[in-house]
Each structure stands twice: as C-alpha cells, then as structure tokens.
Amino acid sequence: METLRIELFGHFQVTVGDRAVPDATWSQRRPAALVKLLALAPGHRLRRDQVMDVLWPELDPAAAGRNLRKALHAARRALDGEQGADLIASVGDLLCLPADRLSVDVDEYRSAAATARRTRAVDAHVGAIERYRDGLLPQDVYEDWAAAPRDALRDDWLALMAEFAELLETRGDLNHAARTVQRLVAADPLSEDNHAWLMRLYSAAGRRGEARRQYQRLCDVLDAELGIEPSPSTQRLYEEIRSNLAAEPEQAIEVWERVGDLRAQSGDAAATITAYERALRAGPDASTAVRLHRKSAATLVTQQQLDAAETHLDAADRLGPDATDQGRLAGVRASVMRERGDLAAARQLADRAHQVAVVHGDADAVVEALEEQAILAHIQGTWRTALQLQMPRLAAVDLGGRVSRFFEINHCIGQYQLYEDALAGDVEQYARETLALAERADAVAVQAFAWCLLGESLLLRGHWDAAAACLDRSCELYAPMGSRSVALPWLRRAELAICTGAFDEVAPYLGRASAIAAVTPLARHAWGRLHATAALAALERDDLDGAVESVRAASRTAAHYGDCASCGLLLNPVGAETLARTGDVAGARAFAEAARRAASFHDSMAWTAMAESAAASASVAAGDPVEARVGFDSAAALYEKAGQPFWAARSRRQAAAV
C-alpha cells in the first residue's frame, strides 16, 4: 500500500507514493480543506460532525452532511482515484488518514522542535527552525479554520528562535545570535524587547554603529505604527551605547553575567557556567568576581561537581569578600557539605549564613539561607518541626517580593509530604497544627502556606467542599502579596474545579497562576503543573486539540524556565494519555519513562500509580489493549490504597474504555 505525505508549510503539497498530486487537482477548496484539516488534527482523525462544523457552520446537519460526502469523494479521487478510500478511511463516525503510512511536515517540525529543546543542540535548532519555511498554509490566510493552528505554530516558532538566540548568546556566538534576533524583529517589528535585545548583542559584539541604527529603526516603527516612543529602559540603553559610558570589559562582564542568570533560570547548567566563566575572564573587580564565583559554585553544586564548586568558593575567599558576601558564600558551602553527606557541617554553615544575612539586612541572603535550612531539614526528616520552629523568625522578617522563593521550596517539599506513603496519612493534622501556630504568631505567609497544604490534603482525599474553603483562604492570603506570590493554591483550585466538573472555573484560576509563574524566580515549580492541569481539563472536556497544545506548551516553558520533577509529576500521566490519543507512540513512551524514573526514587503508591497509568497510556498508543487494561487497573488499585478516590475512579474508567 502506498505512502501519503502532506506538506502544509509554505505551498500545500500532497504526494502519494512517488507521485505528486498536481495543484490543479485541488481546484475545489473543500476537498483540499478536508485533507488539510485531517493532517492538522491530533491523531489525524476527526469526527464527521467536527468537519461539518468547521467547513459548513452555516448549514443544517443534513445539508452539511451532503456537502461532506461530496468533498470526501472528491478528496479520495484526488489522492488515488478508486483507491483513495484507503487514504481517507471511514471508521464509524471518524474520518482518518493512514497513521502507519503517513508523514506530515507539521508533525516533523514539532518533533524536531522538541528534540532541539531537549538537547539544546545548535544543529537541532537550525533544522527545526528551517522546517517552518513560510509558515502554515499562507495561501489559506482568509480561512477561519486555519487561523488558530497558524497562530499557534507561529508562536511556537518564534519561541524556538528566541530560545536558539539565547543559546547562541550563551555560547559566545554573538553575531549568529544577532542574526537570529534579526529574524525575530522582522517577524514582529513592534516587539521593543527584541529590538533592545538586538541592540545589546550588537554592542557586545563591538558593532555600536549598528546598535544605534537599530534604535533609530525602533523609534521609526513605534512612531509610525503606534505614535509612541521607546520605553525609558530602552532609551537608557541607547544613551549608554551612544555615549560609550561602559568600557568594553565592563560591558562584557555585565552581558555575560546577565546571560548566565538567564540560563540558570532555565536550568541549563552547562551554559550557565560557561557564561559566568566568560564574565570572570573579562577581568571584573573584586566584588563582582566574588559574586560570579559564588554563582558559579552554586550552579556546579546542582550538577554534583563539588570539587569544582569548592575551587570557585576558595577563589572567592582569596578576594577578601565583605561580611555579607562571606555569609552568602557560607550558604553555598552548606549546599556542598549537604551533597557530600556531612549534614552537621552543612547545618552549621547554613545557620551561619542565616545569622550573617539577618545582621546585615540582606533579604535575598536571608531567603537563600532559609531555603538551605528547609532542604536540610527535609533530608534529616525534621522538616515539619523545623518549619514550625522558624515561625517567630518568619513572622518578624518581611520577605516582601521574595516570599515565593521561600515558600515555593516549602510547597515543593510539601509534595513529598502529601504523596510519600509514610508521611501522607497525617499531613492534614500537621497542616492544622501549623496553621494554629501561624495564626498565634501572626505569620500571614505561613498561614497561606498551611491553608494550601491543608486544602491539598483534603483535595486528594476527595473532600471537595472543605478543600475549596481551604484553598480559597490560601489564595486570599497570598493575593495581597501580588504577582510575586505563590502559584500553587490557584493551581490546586483549578484541579479541584476539574474534579467537580466546574470547567468554567478552570481558566480564571489558571490565568492567575500564569501571571504568578511568569515572574516568580522559581517558575520551574509552577509551569509543569499548570500545563498538566490545563491538559487534564481539556481531556475531561474531550478537547484533544487543547490537551495537545498544553502538553506542547509544557515543553516550551521547560526549555525557558526549567522544571521540577516533583511539582510537575502530573504532567507525566496526562502527557502520556494526551499523546497516546494522537497515536504518538514515542511521545507517550517518553512520558511513561519519565514517570517510571520519578516513581523509582520514592516509596509512594500515588506516584507509582502515575507511572502505571502513563505506561498504560503508552500501551494504548502501541496498540496493546491487554497491557493497557492491566496498567490502568493497577493504577486504580494503587490510587485506592493511597486514598485518592478521584484518580482511582478515573483510572478505572480508562481501563474500561480500552
């Protein structure tokens, strides 16, 4: 049987076997539109009523049905004459393209983009970016049905190019990075951020004349299109470049430190270290060098490169750091000792770091020390007591915009409390005790934390009304802290809305969580769960397109912000289920493997259930219904033992549906 290839980027082209279908064959719009819709659909299949709603929304079902039959007949003849029914099959109410003999360039782009984001390889990015060509179906620009997928693919392509430019900048290839940002500017001339980025790249590469001309182009386009001037920050950047206020070495140091900070935020440790080392080679002053050595050491600790981390710490010590820097260096040494297993030394160093930070009023250092103390307490099994003992200090210290940094870490640790078999049973009691202590101490942020933990415990056990009250109270207490708060209570509130079928409430809660995730310094704890929750809501509404887009969005945000294995665990079973429904066997298996790997590190029936569920979805994708039923039944039994009735019932429904 012949293969079918469909190209949707640039010029629409269909090839059957080695025969290209002539353009003249598609003189009728609707047969071509039917093929395009099926090529774009998840799993390359659509219900007849879905096609009719898209192509003939103004007609009654009978008339639309007649038009669909005509279009289907014409499309089949265009593809392969009398054999065309093999290429667009009717399976019950579904119209399907042949998954085992089909290739679509849009699918290939998405796969290439995912590979580029996973590997962060230059060649992979170049290959993925070039697949986009002239965008999706430019000849169908006035077709309403093409607008949403065109915009989604364009947004993804722009995001991928921005990620590529960041990668090139991190590696010191400033000219290639500038060429990539030029494409971003050409694609969106009104994006002031991209113009400013290009100015900085030109300046860092010694191309100051081009940087000044780029600013003038920005002024011209903003004036012509919007009647406004560039923002004050961009004007300041221009003045610095024009007047050459910063010497070349100083500017290089600033650029590379900023690049390192950005790559650290996205979890790209290797690129982070490279950027900081470039800044150090540019000859910073002693104070800046101490800071760069500290940041380098902290990043190396995350990669278990402890000897290299200590080399940077020793170098910082030799530069004569002031008292504040000594405290922050002690905090990083605490993490080194923690990773070496010397918890007593780590505790002493963390306590010293906290004391120094408090004395010198360094709020960022206070939070860093509190984070390290929380992690140590978690490892030593004393986290619950330690958090309660910190109550007076937390009530007395104004964490301000740093509240998310401290409580995101503790909410992350809270996930272990909620899901580990040995801990989950009395989380509700602990949350109530902590809440009482926080109220007596007037520690508002701790109250918000405790209300959220209590709500999560009740949510997992199926106590919907009580969970709603607790999570709402957590949101109320966190809300005055602004966008630099904690996203988790809003994310859990959205999850509760899904559990109770209140789907119209999901988007507002996720919207508030998105606003927080976009600015919090620990965004990696939020985005995976956010997109997983959005995908779950879409699956429950039978909106496969929405679920697929949410899973893809998770890949994009992970590339930019990094991810957290424990906070984002829900993405594994939901992602596997979503991709299984599209027939993406490799994608479903990748999520299943991630779930298995995460569960293997913990004694948790719930996390093992997630792994079983994800593996079962992969079996569905692979066409093994027997294995899939076994997996879903196993997941249901584990969820039942873990006391999570919603997920147990959902797994049983999945088993029955196979």
From TrEMBL:
* Residue runs in coiled coils: none
Q: Where are the TPR repeats?
A: 253-286
Q: Which domain of life is it from?
A: Bacteria
Q: Where's the Bacterial transcriptional activator domain? A: 104-242
What PROSITE patterns does this protein map onto?
TPR (PS50005)
Q: A single GO molecular function, which one?
A: DNA binding
Give the UniProt keywords, A-Z. TPR repeat
One GO biological-process annotation of the entry reads:
regulation of DNA-templated transcription
Xref: PANTHER family: TRANSCRIPTIONAL REGULATOR REDD-RELATED
- Name used for this protein in its record: Transcriptional regulator putative two-component response regulator domain
Provenance organism: Frankia alni (strain DSM 45986 / CECT 9034 / ACN14a)
**Source organism lineage?**
Bacteria, Bacillati, Actinomycetota, Actinomycetes, Frankiales
